[in-house]
Amino acid sequence: MIKSTAKTALLASTLLGATAAMAETTLTIESWRNDDLALWQSQIIPAFEAEHPDINVVFAPSSPAEYNAVLNSKLDAGSAGDLITCRPFDASLALYDAGQLADLSDLSGMDNFSDVAKSAWQTDDGAATFCVPMASVIHGFIYNKEAFDELGLAAPETEAEFFAALDAIQADGNYIPLAMGTNDQWEAATMGYNNIGPNYWNGEEGRLALIAGDQSLTDEQWVAPYRTLARWGAYMGDGYEAQTYPDSQNLFTLGRAAVYPAGSWEISGFNGLADFEMGAFRPPVQNAGDECYISDHTDIALGLNAASPNAEAGRIFLDWVGSSEFASLYANALPGFFSLSNHAVDMEDPLAQEFVSWRGDCHSTIRSTYQILSRGTPNLETETWNASVAAIKGTETPEDAGARLQEGLASWYEPQQ
């Protein structure tokens, strides 16, 4: 009898263990951020799994350049992961409109985000929100503090001070003043035009006026940033035309360049590569005392594959992404990716602290081409890339660039016709 009871207990225990094992769910995350794989594996996923031992999470990124095509192929084939890392605005909206991202409007974690934070992952009318906001990136300039100290330079606040500093660096001859190339094109627009531009078009005021058709790309505030970019080429070093994005990163982190037009996403990588102290300054205003504007760009979010067989577990993970624990963990594990939630987050990295402090002094906006204005052909985002490159190289006048881009936008976008 005792043996029989023991056998029964053992059998029950075995069945219970098998049932528990069967109840475990594995969630797979699709992402373009292959550079932070180790952080997900060592910090973010263990923190979630400690609270939810019945849910396993696998972070399975693709190459950034291939992500859109790979993701679309997987979604079409029904082989995509459960959770989809979302780019802002139109790329993710297209997935939602195609029925490939689930509506997350009723997720309780969404209450922790402002309407502005959610706007990058909503339908145009705001009726549906389909990705949980994770982080924004802020644009500005990262500089070599040791180089500036050697030359007695302070971080510039106005454009006149900015170009005076570049002149001093160039005259010294020990550093390339500005580490940026034009080979890959996107940097010229992202870290050039949309970095300095908000101070000209007054951030959201100008961006929304362009969408409404109340301003034009031939207006002075949209042409003037190209004139400023046209002055950059003289400071970018020999052969900048063939210089790639990784080339520019290397020039700066190896200490060969003094100023790097930046997005805050560089902080983590630069911290591990540069052996000198770095500082950051925000996009210089045109005149002392002018109001300042920064590109505080809604960059990354996480959505649920509408075809996921693990939707319940996926929603549990996404709810956690909206928590204060995730906000603090992600922002400090990846300094330079700033939380979009309403939770107070203490930043530990000094360079990240500098970038995020600008929110208290300046008006925030997003990149001018990302919402609505790049849905047609020609695509205003990629057209802004080549216009920015042309301005730097001097192969197209700022006025001609503005006229060309305006003609292209007006060819398909009704409010600009």
What is the tally of beta strands?
10
The largest β sheet comes out as:
10 strands, mixed
CATH-defined fold name of the largest domain = D-Maltodextrin-Binding Protein, domain 2
| Overall tally of domains | 2
Proportion in β-strands? 15-25%
Q: Total helix count?
A: 18
Overview of this protein structure:
The chain is an alpha/beta fold and 417 residues long. It is built from 18 helices and 10 strands. The protein has 2 domains: 191 residues, D-Maltodextrin-Binding Protein, domain 2 (3-Layer(aba) Sandwich); 212 residues, D-Maltodextrin-Binding Protein, domain 2 (3-Layer(aba) Sandwich). Helix content is 45%, strand content 15%. Strands 1, 2, 3, 4, 5, 6, 7, 8, 9 and 10 form a 10-stranded mixed sheet that branches. The longest helix is centred in the N-terminal third of the chain and has 22 residues.
Present the secondary structure layout.
Blueprint lengths: L1 H22 L1 E7 L5 H15 L3 E7 L5 H11 L5 E4 L3 H8 L17 H4 L12 E14 H6 L8 H14 L3 E3 L7 H11 L1 H4 L2 H9 L7 H11 L14 H9 L3 E7 L3 H7 L4 E4 L11 E12 L6 H11 L2 H10 L4 E2 L10 H8 L5 E3 L14 H14 L4 H13 L7
Parallel strand pairs: 1-2, 1-3, 5-6, 8-10
Antiparallel strand pairs: 3-8, 4-6, 4-7, 4-8, 4-9
Helix pairs in contact: 8-17, 11-17, 11-18, 17-18
